[in-house]
Amino acid sequence: MAGNEEVSIIAHLLEVEKQASQVISVANVKADKKISEAKIAADAEFKKLFTEKSDKIQNDFNENKTRIVDEHNKVMEEYKSSVENKAQNKENFNAFLDKVLFE
User: What is the pTM of this model?
Assistant: First the structure.
């Protein structure tokens, strides 16, 4: 009988090991699923934040560029206007050129 009892104990231990293996397998599948879901959520959050930040940077750049171009155009127009409105002394200029070029 002792032999039967040992076989019964070994069979029981094998059954417990099989059940433990199944529990571990199910736990691994659940863990892999949770990790995958967490990665997908993290990637989505990163993409959202990245898009928000890059859009803000692009908008700031465009606003600054427009402001700078407008300021530049204003300064250039003021300069052109000041040059065009300056009194021209053609006689003195021509005399200067004659002196520099032909003497």
Answer: 0.57
